[in-house]
Specification:
This protein has 20 helices and 18 strands. It is mostly helical and 535 residues long. Helix 7 runs antiparallel to helix 20, helix 9 packs across helix 11 and helix 18 runs antiparallel to helix 19.
């Protein structure tokens, strides 16, 4: 049950307003103090991040003020210029600094029992008050772990798979209600419940979360969640009525050459991400040195859009530089029509059609049926590669598919969108190009980014396995599942931890790449392991 009294108290004036044909913007009531850290702390924020007072840029933006924010900011202003040591002491005196460690010691050699007990450690109670950048939620929720101290959107679906196995029905319901609450209060589900995530979402798995409740409680669940599901869909489609041949893009919506409408990842802001401030400035400096015609705002927007994809970062969003290598400074996320996003929105449209049919609203059911049929046709037209025998992302600026093979290509299998012939071709590609000793590699390219080789990630293993089963490729599905879970078990036997990602190519090495070290915890790895070993 939602705590609607909390909603009004905590969020007066904090709404995402969608203004037709001019994009959306976050309008905040500054008296409430749920602001992104650069607005909340001003010069203090920039000094801490630019001078690398903490190794991880996310540390300070997650810190909890120990007193009135205005008083702290004023005190800092009056201090004048501080050296780095004094600045660090000032922050330590005035903020509670978050820690990454999980204070949990396994008491069992069984991973399943370990995870079942670990849910308690990863669970957070409902938020009673505003605390720094945290957006309060009205119900308990599960965090991923490590530096990820808040709820995350697409992580949560895969976490719920394990919660379902472990009988945590109430926790699943609470988390779905929290996401409903975020949709109601913000118009969409942010990347996570932090003020600095209010410019972007993440891959839209809310329909899948609702489906978990439908599977356990029956189709009457649709009645409770259809308004939120439709509202989230309208967020992704905002601007659809404004695009034409002359202006073919608006926020997350793209009109293609023959009039089809598909979607891209985006962010409503074009500044450095507060939680990766220093990293983004460095990337922009490098990009502008290579490509002087670019603007900083363009680079920041594309980095943020890459974060909305959940694949932050990957060769999917990059172009090869003059040396023929992938480099983050070449990021072009907003040029790409991604396979995963559009298949997920196909599923949202199909779920809306199904839900409205159950609720006997046939006009809306038929409307969304027409939407998902049109999207399926467009997906096959633009994203299926006959040459590769695989679903590929599409660069609408170049009017060509990208050259990047990735596990985003399995989404049509998971959602039963592919034909039998396509499924056969995809299965062959998975076995010959992606399969490694520890499971499936995310892409076959070694770029130094964490969503590329040699790393494998739990959600993509799960979607590949279940997608293959949907088309009766059980032997390959079982082979992938066995390799992945065996790798989980091998690492667990060494350190009693479940990790965010794994090196699936060389089982003697840890995963790596990206902006931060591999995290342990870990929500979606736990969920997928439980789901794959439940029998």
């Amino acid at each position: 049950m939602l705590h609607t009294d909390l909603r009004y108290f905590l969020y007066p004036g904090l709404l995402v307003l969608f203004i037709s044909c001019s994009g959306g913007k976050v309008v905040t009531d500054k008296s409430v103090k749920i602001l992104p850290p650069e607005e909340l702390y001003g010069k203090l924020f920039y000094d801490v991040q630019e001078r690398q007072i903490f190794e991880d840029s996310k540390t300070f933006v997650d810190a909890i003020p120990l007193g009135n924010v205005d008083t702290i900011v004023k005190l800092y202003f009056n201090k004048g210029k501080l050296n780095n040591t004094d600045l660090r002491y000032f922050v330590l005196d005035n903020y509670e600094i978050p820690q990454n460690d999980i204070n949990f010691i396994s008491d069992s050699v069984s991973i399943n029992n370990h995870i079942k007990q670990l849910w308690k450690t990863l669970k957070r109670p409902y938020d009673e008050k505003i605390s720094g950048t945290l957006l309060p939620l009205p119900n308990p929720y599960i965090i991923p772990g490590g530096r990820f101290r808040e709820i995350y959107y697409w992580d949560s679906y895969f976490t719920m798979l394990g919660l379902r196995v472990d009988g945590e029905k109430e926790t699943i319901k609470h988390m779905v209600d929290n996401f409903t609450y975020l949709i109601e209060t913000n118009g969409f589900i942010p990347n996570g419940n932090r003020s600095y995530y209010l410019g972007r979402s993440q891959p839209p798995f809310f329909a899948n979360m609702v489906q978990i409740l439908v599977d356990t409680e029956g189709e009457q669940v649709y009645e409770n969640y259809m308004p939120a599901l439709e509202k989230e869909y309208l967020f992704w489609m905002n601007g659809e009525d404004c695009i034409d041949e002359l202006e073919p893009t608006n926020r997350r919506v793209v009109r293609l050459k023959d009039g089809e409408i598909l979607n891209r990842y985006w962010d409503d802001f074009d500044t450095p991400r507060p939680e990766s401030y220093r990293e983004d400035v460095i990337t922009a400096n490098k990009a502008l040195k290579k490509y002087p015609e670019l603007s900083r705002e363009n680079v920041y927007r594309n980095l943020r859009a890459g974060a909305e994809s959940g694949w932050d970062f990957s060769s999917r969003w990059l172009i090869k530089d003059m040396k023929g290598e992938y480099d983050l400074s070449t990021i072009r996320t907003t040029h790409i029509i991604p396979v995963d996003l559009n298949v997920l929105l196909f599923n949202v449209e199909r779920t809306l059609a199904k839900g409205y049919k159950f609720n006997e609203n046939l006009s809306k059911a038929n409307y969304y049926k027409a939407k998902y049929l049109a999207r399926r046709k467009a997906i096959n037209k633009y994203l299926w590669s006959r040459q590769e025998g695989f679903f590929m992302d599409y660069n609408f600026i170049l009017e060509a598919q990208t050259e990047t093979l990735s596990l985003a290509g399995v989404y049509p299998l998971f959602f039963n969108l592919a034909t039998e012939a396509q499924a056969r071709s995809i299965s062959e590609k998975l076995e010959t190009i992606f399969l490694r000793p520890g499971g499936l590699v995310t892409t076959p390219y070694h770029t130094g980014e964490q969503w590329d080789a040699p790393n494998g990630w739990a959600p993509l293993q799960y979607m590949s396995i279940e997608g293959l089963k949907n088309y009766s490729y059980k032997d390959l599905a079982d082979k992938i599942a066995k390799r992945w879970t065996s790798l989980n078990e091998k690492v667990y036997s060494q350190n009693y931890k479940m990790l965010e990602k794994y090196n699936v190519e060389d089982l003697s090495k840890k995963s790596g790449g990206g902006e931060y070290p591999t995290q342990d915890g870990f929500g979606w790895t736990n969920g997928v392991y439980q789901a794959l070993t439940k029998d």
